[in-house]
């Protein structure tokens, strides 16, 4: 049983929450303004749809990498995530996708639930790689369907301006896969057309995409004008706080991702991001040329960052959990309600994470 200020689907209550066999069984209490007492905050566990690594391990590695990754992120409040790939040669990428199927079926004790795979590349624009390796290719439907058959791919990032990609967007969206636009030099019109074909979100909004200009609004302009969903990295390095605020006003269900790398939860030094060598220093991760290469952000720090901008806790919580669940069409995660999974985080009044529960399991080791 947990007691505190609980953010339920109907708003804040001060009361108690009970769970059994991994599910929430009871909620009781009275409506409260959490600013009127000193009780801890009890929030839905965080859902991160863009995770490349953590704890020194990378999604593109074989073996026990996913165990280290999920345990690292669980210690920072992430109760479920999408294992996110890097652009790589076809055979390597297919092996990785196939191997992640087992991780999605069987949760590592002490770790986050792997909801599936986010295929970030190889179907991106080679002129907007960001930190992705130079192995981008144009999508061919037969190959895309092979990926979908190999593993639980929930999200695909694609550059819509590449010839043939509009048809691919339509095909995979019709199969229930969420299509995101990113690593793109596409125009505003390309993005709008892609959304009409079934694309629903934008990958790390503002980063690795054509920017907003008042006479050439680009991918960013299309997102701000039309998107219901988009992901954003609020480490305060990738995106200026003013741009974060603008996106939150424009995109109703803007949701937080970390774009975290193997350097997350680790000391400064040299690490890998897929086939790339990266350096963690000064709070970020970069390629040798200085390009930002993912992040070391954790979701508990993302909460603190957004709250530091003066945003209400309930709004911040939704952007760390519920919006991502709704985007994937998951009704029993990302919210506190009877029957939902007992994926929970507890924060004290100074916004320090004090407890995490993944499907009712207490995660007791904190970084």
From TrEMBL:
Q: Which InterPro entries match?
A: Amidohydro-rel, GlcNAc_6-P_deAcase, Metal-dep_hydrolase_composite, Metal_Hydrolase
Alphabetically sorted, this entry's keywords are: Carbohydrate metabolism, Hydrolase, Metal-binding
Q: What class of enzyme is it?
A: hydrolase
- Could you say which cofactors this protein requires? a divalent metal cation
Binding of substrate: at which residues? 131, 207-208, 215, 238, 292-294
UniProt cross-references to Pfam families, sorted A to Z: Amidohydro_1
Q: Which residues form the active site?
A: 259
Q: Which residues bind Zn(2+)?
A: 120, 183, 204
GO biological process: what's one of them?
N-acetylglucosamine catabolic process
Write down the EC number: 3.5.1.25
The domain of life is Bacteria
Q: Which residues form the Amidohydrolase-related domain?
A: 41-354
Supply one GO molecular-function term. metal ion binding
State the Gene3D superfamilies in the record. Answer: Metal-dependent hydrolases, Urease, subunit C, domain 1
**Cofactor binding note from Swiss-Prot or TrEMBL:** Binds 1 divalent metal cation per subunit.
State the family it belongs to: Belongs to the metallo-dependent hydrolases superfamily. NagA family.
Q: Please state what the protein is called.
A: N-acetylglucosamine-6-phosphate deacetylase
**Which species is the source of this protein?**
Paraburkholderia humisilvae
Could you tell me the gene encoding this protein?
nagA
